[in-house]
Amino acid sequence: MQNSHDYQRVYVWEQPVRWFHWINALCILVLGVTGYLIAHPPALMNSGEANFSYWFGKLRFAHFLTGYVFLANFLFRLYWASVGNKYTHWRNFFPVSKKQIQQVWAVLKVDVLQSSDKPVHVLGHNSVAYFTYMGTGLLTVFQVVSGFALYAPMSQFWFTHLFDWVVPIFGSEQNLRLFHYTVLWLFAVFTFIHVYLVFYHDYVEGHGVLSSMVGGWKFMETEKVSQEESANIAGIPTKTAAPKPVKQAQGKPNA
Amino acid sequence: METIGDSSLPDSQDRATIYEQITSRGVPRREFLKFCGWMSVCMGLGPAGAAQVAAALENKRRLPVVWLHFQECTCCSESFLRSSHPIVADILLDKLSLDYTETLMAASGHQAESCLQDTIKKYKGEYVLCVEGSIPLGEDGAYCCIGGKSAKQIIEEVAADAKAIIAWGNCATAGCVQAAKPNPTMAAPVHKVIAGKPIIHVQGCPPIAEVMAGVLVHLLTFDRIPELDSLGRPKAFYSRRVHDTCYRRPNYDAGLFVESFDDENARKGYCLYKMGCRGPTTYNSCGTIRWNGGVSFPIQSGHPCIGCSEENFWDNGPFYQRLSNLPGFGIESTADKIGGAVLGVAAVGAAAHAVMTNLRKRHAIGEQAGESAEKAEESNASQHPETES
Q1: Residue A192: its pLDDT value, please?
Q2: How far is A75 from chain B (nearest CA, A)?
Q3: Measured between alpha carbons, how far apart are the two ends of chain A, in Å?
Q4: CB contact (8 A) between residue B343 and residue A185
Q5: Is pLDDT at B62 greater than 50 in this prediction?
């Protein structure tokens, strides 16, 4: 790596956040696939007696079970948003400060319009990404609430009946089911764009964003790290207890 | 109909218990007890409840009932009249006493209106108000007027002194077809017009006759409204989905579905889920009590449930499609079509973006340190002169 610059390895995504991400991804995949199949069951069996098979029942069971995991995982992330490091803090998700709003425009110019040549380099997510994840968080809340409301009539568990108030708002389960299903498409669109953009950022920036969700480290030019370290975009100072960024300066380039 | 207009009734008959009235019409006690047993099972009380029902009918006086008809087709009344058990129609309807009901009373005009006023005064706070049909709120209620008063005026007046309100059918509980989009008359169900009174929602288009009878007998037996669910429906009849009580349910769990109405699977009686059956989202007793004295119900006859006991079932169409069309996107817009289109747009956008990125990549990345050894050196030299020195 003789052409490296003064890069610093920064521990951005703590292990619990990474676990959350991949469990969440798996849940969305399983829920999406089983949910789609519940709405459109394929004609796997065109003959036979009902007592020989239970595949549709098992499919629905997988959907319901994954729903519980999805919720538990999400609740954990909410907790972590208050105890985790500054990149995972809940305040990032609300673009309210002037700095954040400016960054939203800057990112849109670079990433979407491609009309600016000044890339926005941040250690956590950029403000657009944080805002998007707040959106997916709201979608998650909606899917969990509507999902448990639809599930409650089949369950004796008190927890599911905490959601009994939802159906009356939507008038009927048929209507709620439609919205529950439509959000599946929103998740599909989100996932597609999300995966594309991660590849895109890794491709053009080289900060290791793609692998950061595996190992937790991002790589950033040293001077940019020091800017970030003072306080991040949402104004959250670095916690003293937080793991110190591992200084891995490559030193000066070999001549 | 000697029961109409209580002022005309001899006091003794007015005070007669339901049992006395039944037996005076020649119904044997055995038949009466069978009815009590059947009703208590229908209401979910179990066989032991029969004694309670019998005791109530033997000792309690008739329940004064005012039955109002607004925007409706009278299918609820028709259903009730066709109850499989003669005592339901004969006794509950005839003798339980409909003090006022537009469809069945003999009186008309001023006589009928005075009957209504008499009943309201005489049984103030005691009578049960049954409502069939929705109440139009558009154009000051001009779409439904009786005796010079709008439906809204009438129901507000009558409901004020009622003990409880029974909203019969989908019209009175959710507006049914006349409240479907665009709802030109602004048809509203009872609970949107009346507040502060217990309202029992007896859903269905029409409700099952035995369910209607069960609700009335429950009121009579226990003097209080039956246990209701979050949508105001009696739990005894509406706590389970048609799907949960459907005899075709094992086919659903096994993934055996009818693919079209004339296929082999339809002949075998597989699940109608893919034909748009609303059983999984519809709460009713069709699967257990069934219709016409337990003869059949739509699914048993090979037709998917259309969800007639659910709010907005007309707008949640098409009936033969599993998922409703997405509202706000015009007709024929399913979530799948729109979702697929959005995903397609995202894919095309991403592809175009990727092409652009590659065209610009050299330029974009060349700006950054580390692109090449020479550039890195240059930028290092300019940015960190002290390390170089």
Answers
A1: 93
A2: 27
A3: 12
A4: yes
A5: yes
